[in-house]
Amino acid sequence: MMTKLRQLLGRFRRKEEGATAIEFALIAIPFFLIFMALFEMSTMLLAQYELQQAMTNAARAIRTGQARSGLSLNDFRDSYVCPHLTFVKCSNIKIEAKNFSSFGAVSYTDADEDYLDDPSKTLPFSIGGPSEVMAIRMFYKWKFFTPLIGQFMGKTGNSRYLAAGTVFRNEPYS
Questions:
Q1: Which of 25, 80, 93, 94 could form a disulfide with 139 if both were Cys (CB 3.0 to 4.6 A apart)?
Q2: pLDDT tens by residue, 94-153
Q3: How far apart, in whole angstroms, are the C-alpha atoms of residue 121 and residue 111?
Q4: Residue 166 is inside which H or E element, if any?
Q5: SS3 per-residue string spanning 87-126
Q6: Computed from CA positions of residues 85, 86, 87, 90, in that sequence, does the dihedral angle turn out positive or negative?
Q7: What's the chain's Rg over C-alpha atoms?
Q8: pLDDT, position 60
Q9: Residues 6+ away with beta carbon under 8 Å from 83
């Protein structure tokens, strides 16, 4: 009986017809996970770039006086931010705009994940007037779909905040 088992195992070991399929099965899952992670990271970085560009265009509207004080956050977002976005869901963007007397007076609150996820906290939104210093920040919560990648990128394990910001002085428009 033992010799028959040895003969069967020896014959199985000499056969190489399915070796490629077995080797592919062993590396297929890690390969596709790495491929998915690469695709998702590329998409996230593209969304980060898009958020920064949208913020730059919105800041330009404030700096030149096209967007003036008294404009609501939703109107500002719909008119000056959303038209520049394709990878990011516009309604989920959190915007902070503050005006200051000088560049030295610019200060921010820590906007970590705990603060941004707290529904009781609201970010200030105030568009300054002519020649005032403005600081604008935008945040977007990016959710990961690839297993394990989110654990390396954020505190919550499946998401991370993308951020864009700028500080400038408004032009002396009238």
A1: 94
A2: 999 999 989 999 988 887 887 888 888 888 999 989 999 999 999 999 988 877 777 777
A3: 10
A4: strand 159-169
A5: CCCHHHCEEEEEEECCHHHCCCCCCCHHHHHCCCCCCCEC
A6: positive
A7: 26
A8: 95
A9: none
